[in-house]
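Translate sequence into structure tokens.
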Amino acid sequence: MSTREQTLEDVLLQEEVLVENEIVLYNDEVNTFDHVINTLIYACDHTAEQAEQCSILVHYKGQCTVKTGSYKKLEPMCTMLLEAGLSAEIS
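Result follows.
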């Protein structure tokens, strides 16, 4: 086995080990676009454009992944979304 093949094999193995969780935001009939956008900016550190795009996707598709990362990183963000009255979960 050449060095190049061994390196490629190692990289592929590392990629399989990385498991990222995601926060999924769900549509509801209660919250306004402005509230969702402002909450995403505050809780998930989105730019205004990112937050607006996510709110549109949630409205038309019913859900949207708004953040990915480790569970430890996502838990406080998801908690802030829930405390703001949004429907979200970590999957």
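Note: The longest helix spans residues 3-17.
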